[in-house]
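Researcher: Please predict.
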Amino acid sequence: MDARTTPVDMVLNHGTYCSARCAAVLEGKLGRTSLRSYPPADNRDLKRALARDAGVASDNVLVANGSGPILKSVIPFLIERKIKRSPLRMARFLLKRVAYPIITTNLTYSKVPAGGVRVGLRCVLVPLDPARGFALDLPALEAKLQQHDGLVYLCNPNNPTGNVLITRAELEPLLTRYPDSYFFVDEAYVHYLEAEEHAPIADLVLRHPNLIVLRSFSFAYGLAAVRVGYAVCAPAIVQQVEAKHTPHLVGQLATDLVLASLDDPEHLRFVRAETSRERARLCEAMSAMPALEVFPSRTNFVLCRTRDGWTGKRVHDGLLGRGVKVKIFEPFASESYRDYFRVTVGVPAENAFFLEQLGALLQGASAARESQPS
């Protein structure tokens, strides 16, 4: 592996394996006329399958080329709609930008608060304490909601901490108590969890129009290359967002790959087992390195905190020179993440190479320090 030209990318949370049934779909597309036709304009076949999987109706499903475009379009749309419906909120927004904030955790999918600030929205942060396993402080969240309505964005399981932030039993009372707030729950990594260990929440949209649930096929389903994501929400939201876009939101090849994935009862069991085994391998090896504190994860990535004079950037830069890329975090507002980095759980060869380079980097620095004259 050439560190100069082919760095192993463990920044993006790439999935590892797609369903074995996807290979059959691709084999069926080898003819030169196999890709010439559009899918149905309303993506009805895809929506029906996703609705069945989520336990909702087809008109509750909004599809897109990845979950990112949904985040970028739906969150501002929901906030704008709330602001415009209230003259008081409109005045507050025009004067102070405080009308309907994004409420999220201080460690979260960073593009959401950063993107909100870029378009003039306010972001209110609820702290996650590493000493408490990054557990969501529900009373602190409720205190924010009692001060003002807003859009609550929760990545669940959380990115980058890897833990479940909120359960179905904890979420439903909030949906009832705060009907004027939206709850946007990003389940991009929920498929790494068994239903027995985390009760699904998507069907709650049937009773709570203030809930939006986001999912992706990029990670556990291993289809990042074809970009398919979807939201489950109230039909009115689906209709109004779709009205802003052209039809054929997801292509036929991507649709066929998703349908094949959903029709494979073995795939998620396989991916969960493989991810769990490789994640444990990474955590065990990194936990043995004195310069690192490794946090438990239930996803396909692991968050680490540096010590002994190391920083996330120092680890990142050292590994980059050795052919590996890991994720570090830009500061946001008053939050600094200088001691943290995140590593994706890759395929076995990638994980082995990462551990080899990380061990050499940390040991080399330690040996150099010990050899210096006192």
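Model: The chain has two domains: 8-14+267-365, 21-30+38-262.
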